[in-house]
Design brief:
Glyas_Bleomycin-R_OHBP_Dase; 15% helix; alpha+beta; disordered C terminus; VOC_core; VOC family protein; 2,3-Dihydroxybiphenyl 1,2-Dioxygenase, domain 1; Anthracycline_SecMetBiosynth
């Protein structure tokens, strides 16, 4: 199993799904990825933790009664102080969507909107610091912000989360930067102005690893989901954009199995990123903000 220490501040550390139909999505994801699901009980709003083997990989919460927000995956970034991060985010042009709160003995959290409107969670660990299993089937392999205001997004995340973005491409046709240690980036930011359909807001997305993206995309449809962008090949692998049965969008990426007797490779070198954009192919299930 590939693992990493999620101790670097500002990096993705968790993903959870806000869903209008927990039972339907629980069945979908456990069958798609082979995850196990455990319910935290009424004390924590019946929050579901998904595990791949013994490893925590993602969570799921029921949407509040009366919510009109579309079902969506939320990416969380690791911070050392939620309250200080919220203050810094507001000063840098962000907004607070969910005020800081303590989740039992697990940690503290809040939800922000960056200057382009993309929602992002923040997590200050106490007993729980997020996922550690990565770069293998059934685990997170990449996180990506598609921004309608790329020029504002990079300074915001740099100021609030201490990012030092590495520019992958900076042309009028394609702007993309990665974040993370040199040679081991963990997330990307794309100037998506020219690619997002009209009315679709800036948003974060998670990529999950699968043995074969094309096969997994077909399985998504069998399980009641939808393929938003057919599997495409790039020099970095094969990927597909899909949605679960309630409309939450995510990506699939083929990951290579470990060589016998060796640890699995860490995430594919994202210095070249996952994205090979064709404007006619890019879709999303997220509703206009």
């Amino acid at each position: 199993m590939s693992t990493r220490d999620v101790t670097r501040l500002g990096e993705p550390c968790w993903n959870d799904l806000m869903t209008s139909d927990p039972a339907k999505d629980r069945a979908f994801y456990t069958q798609l990825f082979g995850w196990n699901a455990s319910d935290s009980g009424p004390e924590y709003g019946n929050y579901v933790t998904f595990r791949h083997g013994p490893a925590d990989v993602a969570g799921m919460a029921a949407a509040p009664d009366g919510s009109t927000a579309p079902d969506a995956w939320l990416v969380y970034l690791s911070v050392d102080d939620v309250d200080d991060t919220v203050t810094a985010a507001v000063a840098a042009g962000g907004q607070v969507l969910l005020e800081p709160l303590t989740v039992g003995g697990m940690g503290r959290t809040a939800v922000l909107a960056d200057p382009s409107g993309a929602a992002v969670g923040i997590w200050q660990p106490i007993e729980f610091d997020g996922f550690h299993s990565v770069a293998r089937a059934g685990t997170p392999i990449w996180h990506e912000l598609s921004s309608r205001d790329y020029a504002a997004a990079l300074p915001f995340y740099s100021a609030v989360f201490g990012w030092d973005p590495q520019v992958l491409s900076d042309t009028p046709e394609f702007r993309y930067s990665t974040v993370g240690p040199e040679g081991m980036p963990v997330a990307g930011v794309m100037d998506a102005t020219a690619f997002l359909p009209e009315g679709v807001p800036s948003h974060w997305a998670v990529y999950f690893g699968v043995p074969d993206a094309a096969t997994a995309a077909a399985r998504v449809v069998e399980l009641g989901g939808a393929v938003l962008r057919e599997p495409w090949d790039s020099e970095f692998g094969t990927f597909a954009q899909v949605a679960d049965p309630t409309g939450a969008m995510f990506y699939l990426g083929t990951v290579e199995p470990a060589a016998a007797g060796q640890a699995e490779a860490t995430a594919v070198d994202k210095d070249a990123a996952f994205v090979e954009v064709d404007e006619s192919d890019v879709e999303t299930s997220q509703s206009p903000g």
